Amino acid sequence: MKLHLSGRRPRNRRPTALSSPAGRRWGSGAAALLLAGCATLSPQSPPQPESRPVHPVSPGETPASKASADAPSPSRVEPGGLKPFAEVVRGATQTPGYFPLWRKDEKLWIEVPVARLEQPFLLTVNIDSSVGERGLYASQMGNSWVASFRRVGTQMQLVARNLGWRAEGQLALQRAIAQGFSESLLGAGPVASQEHPERKSVLLDAGFLLGDVAGYSGAIEAAFRIPYGFDRTNSFFEQVWAQPSASSVKVRTHFAVPRLPQASSGARVPQSPPDARSFFVGFVYNFVRLPEQPMRPRKADPRLGHFTDAFVDLANEARTPGRVHFVNRWRLEKADPQAPLSPPKEPIVFWLDKNIPPRYRDAVRAGVLEWNKAFERIGFRDALVVKQQSDDADWNTLDARHASIRWYVGADAGTARGPHHSDPRTGEILDADIAMADVFTRSARRFFVEQGTRSAAAAETGRPGAADEHAHEPAADDCHYAMEAAAELDFALEVLAARGDIDPDGPEAEAFVQAVVKDTIMHEVGHTLGLKHNFKASTTVQREALLDRTRTQRDGTSGSVMDYNPFNLALPGEPQGAYINTTLGPYDYWAIEYAYRPLPAEREEEELLRIASRSTEPALAFGDDYDAGGFGGFEGIDPTANRFDLGDDPLAYAQKRLRLTQELWQRVQSRPPSGRDPVRERRILLGGFRQLDRTIELAGKYVGGMVQVRDLPGTARRTYTPVEPARQREALRLLTSHLFATDSFRFRPEFLRSLPPDYLDRDAEGPVSIPDAVLRVQSMALDRLYSAGTANRLLDLPHYLGQAQAAQALSLAEVYRTLQDAVWAELASAGPIDRLRRNLQREHLRRVVQAITRPAAGMPPDAVSLLRWHARALEARLQQALRRPGATLETRAHLEDSLALLRQALRAGMQRG
């Protein structure tokens, strides 16, 4: 956590290992943990601190040997049974700091000044070590709370303050808020001593930190569906650090289960620990002093994307809506306010953790310092500084003093995260710890041999749960740019290698990897500066400009590094622009200006409105995760807000990726197989299907889609503009004519016969099943086009159009007719139906039957009626097709089975959900 932002070396105290404790088991805390990358530098680490024997001293005072003067008689005990302060800590070692820490053997006490009771501070929990799979990874930031200590008799409670509702300056309303909205208890422990006679402080037994304060057991249960219990006896304190601004405690907690459940129970047994019945998780708890002078908050504007701290302002009865959003940003002030370009009083310092592989530190450092270009535009020189943690450092970058970038590994890890902790009173960012997954050190190609074949296991074996046994599905608030960037790197390298343009094991490929690392770090640093994703930024660059090497090398391939930007691959015969986005875009400069430009208080509101009003400029288009859709049950409706597209025409880009995939498949089938990498061709084949997923996502948004802009009311632009009917029909044709066509998936038999699995370490068994892999892709397209969201948007579309436009609009009936005609095209002839097509037809029929017998929640009645009408037309066509001779036995059996199923559905009563 980053509280030390100056160029001075932070004061430190030596972390001291503590032995494993023994004692009673503690219950879990009430709060749940939210599971919400340097040139070669001379090592610069804080001076090595020293441990000192116990002597009661004031925080920050140099300990002196005065125990004999302070220590009362051992027999002195308060009526309540509490021993004198000095007696409790006799023989212990003190670590002075914000809350002084006292340790002796397995015991740890927190010294709490009486004057600080009920006073707020920031409590953060970071995950130092973990299981290594299914989302339970090391080097992650956890949750944070504004908390306080409350004494209740001989107990001390750690309470999370409720700041979601506020009424500044109105005492009566503040009383009502306190009564109406509860605080939360995070943990509690016994008061261990009498009040110190001089410092007026008491000792708190810190044993409650060996409980599940972070609520991690819930994440463990969700990951494995096994009731692992917290084991207090074998959990222990590892290290402590403290300084005047923060005190940190590192604990190692043990989770265990007496026996593992049977495989039939639905449990997911961990694969990483040596014994799946037991594993340790390390937490770093930080008690952080909140800024004595709160930073002046800056209100957010919806036309840009910043993370915020939000609350309901009950003091302002006229506010609609009642929530106030403060931009998350670092406190950045000029050392010389009058200078056009000045260094900050305290720069934003990122420490590169010693666990970052040395070969990538240059790229990581470059990714951080790229952002200085944006700050120079608004008058700051060297706003961001990078320092390298030395290899012999014994302090932890997850403590409260260092913003950091850390590497982490996991059996299925593929995400990079750029979280931060902020002061919710003002939005001031106090700390940030970027976690970068090790998807590049093992090379993206090897990573996707392991992960790509596993994720394809369901398609190859027909077992829907096969992929789920090993893969972790990122949470909605995860940034999985690293994993996706690695997949893009793998695809790009294979296309260029197949063309003979690059050696995938040569220096050019290594330069690609370094560029992707820099790009990923730029993206994650953007998050730690307070910027959200911008999934419209790629559409601000014209397609023709992407073919201009000079322009793309200078300006990049996208309008923002906060987009998910793929490799810029040209088709054969096209000029090749820069492959990778390596610099900030116009949106990044704009977003940094809004959050960080120094503004006088009396003109801030006016100036912010002026900055935000530039949203109408085409180069500053913005759309966040919700606009892009794809999680939490929300379908994206805006075809210009996408992950991994390039250029101002996403539909054209979808067609381009389809052609690149087909090119790669054709080239790899024409070359001799690789002897050094026996599963390379298998990986390329399956990786191509992954690229088709992007085609479906991009094209699917056009059908019933609306372009959304983030202007405030009163501008010339409207919030929603329906996609032109011709573009919607073009997207529909792309899906039905290419992805539903058998000819799109013809592979040479001799090629398929030469695709072995990894015999030494395999999860995918036997030969690749092309029909199953094709069906998975086609099912994605059917799911999108037959979804309740698509149906509702197409039915609503006429309300957004004039009468003449509505007559030309793509209707839901036309979509259903087009899909059914494309899927069942063979019914017009008496010829055989290929297995790929039979599979597609079964999937289509399954969705139709489901919709007319048990409609999904949200499916509009008009859609059900239309599907039933088209189903009756399909019934008649099936009957007619069965009367014609010449069909193969497989075809006839398929048609008879389909007819029987359809008849049964049409005659069944509807079950309304």
UniProtKB/TrEMBL annotation:
Keywords from the UniProt entry: Hydrolase, Metalloprotease, Protease
Any matching Pfam family: DUF4953
Biased composition regions of type Low complexity, renumbered to the chain: 63-75
InterPro entries membership: DUF5117, EcxA_zinc-bd, MetalloPept_cat_dom_sf, Zn_MMP-like_bac
Domain DUF5117: 140-334
Biased composition annotated in UniProt, kind: Basic residues: 1-14
UniProt-annotated stretches for the region Disordered: 1-25, 37-82
SUPFAM superfamilies: Metalloproteases ('zincins'), catalytic domain (SSF55486)
Domain EcxA zinc-binding: residue ranges: 508-829
MF term (GO), any: metallopeptidase activity
UniProt protein name: Zinc-dependent metalloprotease
